[in-house]
Amino acid sequence: MKPRQIIAIILTILVMAFIYYNSSQDSVASSQASDFVMNWLWDHGIYLSAYAVRKLAHFCEFALLGFLLVFALGGKVFLALLVGVLYAGTDEFHQRFVSGRVGQLLDLVIDGAGVFCGMVLAGILLLIGKLLFHKNR
After folding, report:
1. Which of 98, 25, 12, 107 is nearest to 58 (CA)?
2. What is the chain's mean pLDDT, rounded?
3. Under DSSP, is residue 135 helix (H, G, I), strand (E, B) or coil?
4. Per residue in 74-121, pLDDT tens?
5. What is the pLDDT of residue 102?
6. CA 105/CA 95 separation, integer angstroms
């Protein structure tokens, strides 16, 4: 196993832990975090609702996960997609047991779209890297 794959595995586990931590926050703490981000964005001229911030957070967390999974799993894209979407499903299921939180099918779809987009970005970067590497040979 290459050192970059080991690093990708470690980062993937850290992102999964971060997602789990966020999902473990009760509705009050989750709303406070969303409001904090929303207010910061508003201060910088980006006007999103707390709802939009929450959905965007879902997308971004899982896009990062999808990106890292491609590297952690050695480029096995189907496996990366499967792991990412399964983790999204367990995340939504987990939220059902957190005070004031609910697991939602819409969030699962957003999470899955994030995983897919992160994987596409990883694929594009890998392709660019291969093109540049072969061009310099």
Report:
1. 107
2. 93
3. helix
4. 999 999 999 999 999 999 999 999 998 988 999 999 999 999 999 999
5. 87
6. 12
Query: Are 100 and 27 spatial neighbours (Cβ–Cβ below 8 Å)?
Result: yes
Domain of residue 31: give its range. Answer: 3-135
Nearest partner of 33 among 57, 5, 6, 2, judged by Cα: 57
- pTM of this prediction? 0.91
Q: Could you tell me the two tokens for 67?
A: 């990106």
Rounded Cα distance, 31 and 25, in Å: 9
> CA-CA distance, 136 to 51, in Å (whole number)?
47
Nearest of 128, 11, 113 to residue 71 by alpha carbon: 11
d(CA 122, CA 116): 10
Q: How many domains, the chain? A: 1
How far, in Å, CA of 27 to CA of 95, rounded? 10
The mean pLDDT of 56-73, rounded to a whole number, is 97
CB-based contacts of 111: which residues, under 8 Å, 6+ apart?
58, 59, 61, 62, 84, 85, 88, 91, 92
Q: Average pLDDT, stretch 35-51?
A: 93
pLDDT at 135 over 80: no
